[in-house]
Amino acid sequence: MLEKALVGSRGYWRWLMVLGAVIVLGVIAYLYQFAFGLGVTGLSRNVTWGLYIAQFTFLVGVAASAVMVVLPYYLHDFKTFGKLTILGEFLAISAVTMCMLFIFVDMGQPTRVLNVMLYPTPHSLMFWDMVSLMGYLVLNTLISHVTLDAERNAVAPPRWIKPIIILSIPWAVSIHTVTAFLYSGLAARPFWMTAILAPRFLASAFSAGPALLILFCLVLRRLTRFDAGREPIQRLAIIVTYAMLINVFFVLMELFTALYSNIPEDAEHFKFLYVGLAGNATLVPWMWASAVLSVVALVLLVNPKTRHNETTLAAACVAVFVGLWIEKGLGLIIAGFEPSPLGQVTVYTPTLPEILISLGIYAFGLFLITVFYKIALSVRGQVAA
Amino acid sequence: MGEDRRRFLKLAGLTALCAAGKGSLVRLAGAESPAKGGAAKKKIRWAMVVDPRKCLEKEACTACIDACNHAHNVPAFDNPKHEVKWIWKEPFADAFLDQDVRYIDQALTTKPVFVFCNHCDNPPCVRVCPTKATWKREDGVVMMDWHRCIGCRYCMAACPYGSRSFNWEDPRPHIKQVNPDFPTRTKGVVEKCTFCDELLDKGQLPACVTACKEKALTFGDLNDPDSEVRRLLRSRFALRRKAGLGTNPEVFYLV
Amino acid sequence: MRDRAWIFIGLAAFLALALAPVWQSALHGAARKPEPKIVTKAKQCVEPTAEMRRNHMELLNAWRDTVVRRGQRTYLAADGKTVTMSLSGTCMSCHPNKKEFCDACHNYLAVSPYCWECHIEPKEKS
User: Fold this and answer.
1) What ipTM was reported for this prediction?
2) Between B86 and which of A36, B10, B193, C35 could a Cys-Cys bridge form, CB atoms 3.0 to 4.6 Å apart?
3) Does some domain include residue B37?
């Protein structure tokens, strides 16, 4: 089926070239990091995880969100999402691949990464995270390949794939739950040690992921003959709306508990995020931007008029995605380290190599999505006229 | 020779798996260290008692830090973000963030104290390590295997005491005077105090304890009721850092 | 069939590259077999020389894990003698010439054990 990706319009190739160039830049930056060590990043003894691990966390959510189209279609026989499931699964594959790459570039000794499998350690959540991510990748690769192959041959998918698809639903929930457990089990980090972390992760995932899917559908309609249709997009918009409402609700719960109880070690992390702590306010403008974006998104989404209008819906989806990226892909990880267990606040600003490597991984993910969507649409004969 | 090769392979495989089967390792059985005193003796639980008041007598003294840094080739980085620390001074109030020390003896609480790995009895760093590169020995020492560490820094996120350091770059050029008897580290691994396991295995005291002329650091077996550490803990009140987390630190601070 | 010429050119290029080691050594003569220089104080190594030559890496790995992970530092050799398990302390005290002893073969075989990234090699008079 891969041969479908090898023929395409000029625009297709140009886009892949652009992505390829960004990937090459990322690889060069990574070689520099590999040679010098992680000291080329802005990380420090106190802020030991930063941009890489935050992107990993955010993208696990994007990967898990595929379940939001798969579940209604397969469990509730919701036919409207029929055209979208393959897009969701391909998005999941790309996102999981990016997750793994972000973990890999964060390793101090990348050549020893197989030690995680050579010395399996069930009491470490990182071991389980590896198991669940690998499993999710295999499941989605298998499912998308088998269903698309069946579609190409104009036959029904084999029956044995159904239970595997059903399995992928709880598995999607598990990848983000286990990722939340990575953080929420640490007594050293009160900011993360909250039972609501996993539910909050899922809520933000189920709004950011489908929002991205809506944007992809709108872009595909412009560039190709694939039209997801009005109905599926509106249905996705409702999912985004509810998930976003729940996410904002959860964040407010967190803020109330921490700030009203006013236990310093809980409250200080939120102060760092929203007003600055010990003269360090690097994230404050970002976090308020995120708050404003979330409110704007909710206004546009809750109001039926703006939700039904695809232009304002697109704006709302961008606001959801960017707002949650700031919340989860910047604030959530960094604030866990500010202040440190010894009360210190250390400035963390990602460096150029760190940003280039991250962009390179995102470009690689987009590259995969482009190729996968190209294949899917070629099979359906819906590539650009 | 084929026989020997198999034995080697078995040996390597077994030790890698950390198998306890004594039979296959007969040839290593003669290796019981004097510090352990043989299998017949009851279990040792190493602990340290710090007497910060003794440090106050010579405030500028860094004998323990210097001895440790030299013994273990601890690098000195100019960039504070890349710092590597095994034993260091921390303001009393920061070391004991969970204690309200405002009105306690200011002579003590406004001064720094020495902090290092607490060698917790219930170490969160060990729980999270995905490769068992850090683990708790039978005698309570929380060890590091720098051959196995993948540098994920999960242990650093899990340590409630900030006791762990990461090699953000090659430490070698930053070691003032290299001690050839102890390895340096490579970039990309985590390190911390190991209670001088290399000396304990030879029946000696940790380097910092030996270096302190004021006897501010007392090292001993917590399971032995007659040990010096137990005697000190009986006679004076001692704090442990963040005792409420249940990590059970085995480093005590006399107040 | 128009591409036949290209296919054969491609195949030839591939073969030439894949067989590079063969024609390289035919052209320049095979690289000389390394002869590590064994400087030693004792009559015999911890195990017989032939065994050391073949299995020293496994022995060193076993030593490493036994010392670091089991806290046991004395090795009981097959002939009953005991030695301290230490790369820089035991091995290199007998064989202080790392360049001729270790590197000679390792370079020839293009293996790069990471021992010396951390362990400190003995000072050599070069």
Assistant:
1) 0.91
2) B193
3) no
Q: Are residues B130 and B13 in the same domain?
A: no
Q: What is the mean pLDDT of chain B?
A: 85
User: Cα–Cα distances in Å, from A203 out to A208, A210, B10, C5?
Assistant: 9, 11, 50, 60
Helix residue spans in A106-160 (DSSP H): 115-118, 125-152
B156 CA to chain A: closest CA distance, Å?
7
For testing the chain B interface, which of C69, C79, C92 should be mutated: the one with the most B CBs within 10 Å?
Answer: C69
Check if the beta carbon of residue A211 is closer than 8 Å to that of residue A367. Answer: no
With respect to residue B173, please indicate whether it lies within any of the assigned structural domains.
yes
| Residues of chain B neighbouring A343 (CB-CB closer than 8 A) | 94, 97
Residue B245 forms contact with A (CB below 8 Å)? yes
Q: How many domains does chain B have?
A: 2
* B38 belongs to a structural domain: no
In the numeric block, which tokens belong to residue C116?
Answer: 């010396």
- Interface contact A130-B124, CB threshold 8 A: no
Q: pTM of the full predicted structure?
A: 0.90
Residues of A whose CB is below 8 A from B159? 188, 341
Domain identity same for B1 and B60: no
The answer to whether residues B249 and B224 belong to one domain is: yes
Write the pLDDT tens digit of every residue in B81-129. Answer: 999 999 999 999 999 988 887 888 888 888 899 999 999 999 999 999 9
Contact: B133, A346; criterion CB under 8 Å: no
d(CA A219, CA C61): 56
- Nearest to residue A245, comparing CAs of A298, A171, A170, A306? A298
Phi-psi region of A343 (alpha: psi -120 to 50; beta: other; left: phi over 0): left
Name the closest residue on chain B to residue A36, using Cα atoms: B169
User: What pLDDT does residue B249 have?
Assistant: 96
Among the partner-chain residues B28, B137, B146, the one whose CB lies closest to the CB of C66 is B28
* Domain match, B210 and B179 both: yes
Domain of residue B76 covers 44-254
Q: Are B222 and B120 found together in one domain?
A: yes
Nearest C-alpha neighbor of B74 from the set B202, B208, B230: B208
Nearest beta carbon to residue A188 from set B84, B158, B167: B158
Q: Does B82 touch chain A (CB under 8 A)?
A: yes
